[in-house]
């Protein structure tokens, strides 16, 4: 598979940043490698992880061991027997999670300048509560300047 999405090589600093952003004490994937173990590898090991992630990034080929996940159905309520009453979690390799976090951070850094300052949904450190608190001043300002204005609220 030819990778048509060439980007800069993954830097060791990106791997270290991704590891720092990961939650500790989480269940491991099929490879039984925890984020704490990866952290304990220090400089030499992080270099090896960086090299592996660059191979994956350059070729688009994820090793079989890193592409496997364990799916677990957890009951939403005790004694649940129907599928709808369960939620599924996926346990994947923490090395794969590091790669995904690096890609996500790269995408976020590219997209951030394109997002309007007013957007609150799906933006880090902003949410619908920000929009709700902003709405009265916006409505007051718009009503004083005699401009048509639409305000949409979607709940649910």
TrEMBL record:
State the superkingdom. Answer: Eukaryota
- Provide the protein name: LINE-1 retrotransposable element orf2 protein
């Amino acid at each position: 598979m030819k990778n048509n999405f060439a980007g800069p090589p993954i830097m060791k600093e990106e791997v270290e940043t991704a590891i720092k952003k990961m939650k500790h004490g989480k269940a491991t994937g099929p490879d039984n490698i925890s984020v704490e173990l990866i952290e304990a590898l220090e400089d030499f090991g992080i270099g090896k992880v960086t090299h592996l992630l660059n191979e994956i990034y350059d070729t688009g080929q994820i090793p079989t061991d890193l592409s496997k996940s364990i799916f677990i159905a957890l009951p939403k309520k005790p004694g649940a027997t129907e599928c709808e009453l369960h939620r599924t979690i996926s346990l994947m390799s923490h090395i794969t999670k590091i790669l995904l976090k690096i890609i996500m951070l790269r995408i976020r850094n590219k997209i951030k300048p394109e997002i309007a300052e007013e957007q609150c949904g799906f933006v880090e450190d902003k949410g619908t509560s920000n929009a709700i608190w902003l709405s009265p001043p916006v409505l007051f300002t718009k009503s004083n300047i005699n401009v048509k204005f639409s305000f949409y609220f979607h709940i649910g």
